[in-house]
Design the sequence.
């Protein structure tokens, strides 16, 4: 039982710390909250967390394969370059086209926010290698075994750690009512810049592998 608690808090902390820096997912959670309401921000966060749990589950079963075959990680990183480049251009163009206007209440399907969260989380191709690496480290430390309770703990902790950060982002930006218009106007520029930073980091990782 002790190793289950250690596994949960270690994985929760790793997921939490990986999601804290401003990035595509947490900035979109904040943006959704500002433009479509706090509830939609939470629904979006649940969608992201659901996909993270699916990716963590997949990572458990391919961690050994990735560990023994680094060329697979290289392929994922190369695909990630194309994805980050696409979104950097997309958000920049979107920001350029967006006209200055007052935000008004819009009725948005909660299902759309949920599926948007799932889609954006699925596009983050670095998630599976990240959790595969964690799984390999926890396995060496003796914190996780390929048993149902261990796998469940690992997956739930990954989703809970991610959701905790997104929840904070959702409520933090939602309370900045006086800066809502400014944030909404500049959010696409911020996301474009973040995608560019991720693109550069990924190129550096490939270059030094």
Sequence:
């Amino acid at each position: 039982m002790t190793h289950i608690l250690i596994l949960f808090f270690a994985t929760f902390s790793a997921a939490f710390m990986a999601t804290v820096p401003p990035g595509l997912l947490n900035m979109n959670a904040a943006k959704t909250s500002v433009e479509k309401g706090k509830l939609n921000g939470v629904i979006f966060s649940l969608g992201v967390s659901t996909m993270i749990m699916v990716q963590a589950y997949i990572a458990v079963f391919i961690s050994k394969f990735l560990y023994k075959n680094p060329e697979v990680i290289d392929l994922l990183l190369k695909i990630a370059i194309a994805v980050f480049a696409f979104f950097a251009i997309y958000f920049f163009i979107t920001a350029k086209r967006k006209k200055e206007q007052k935000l008004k209440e819009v009725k948005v399907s909660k299902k759309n926010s949920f599926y948007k969260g799932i889609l954006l989380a699925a596009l983050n191709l670095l998630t599976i290698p990240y959790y595969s690496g964690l799984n390999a480290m926890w396995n060496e430390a003796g914190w996780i075994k390929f048993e149902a309770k261990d796998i469940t703990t690992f997956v739930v902790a990954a989703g809970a750690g991610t959701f905790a950060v997104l929840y904070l982002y959702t409520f933090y930006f939602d309370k900045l009512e006086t800066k809502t218009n400014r944030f909404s106007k500049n959010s696409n520029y911020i996301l474009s810049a973040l995608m560019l930073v991720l693109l550069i980091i990924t190129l550096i990782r490939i270059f030094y592998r």
Observations:
- Residues 2-207 form one domain.
- The helical segments are 2-19, 24-36, 38-68, 70-97, 110-123, 127-141, 148-174, 180-207.
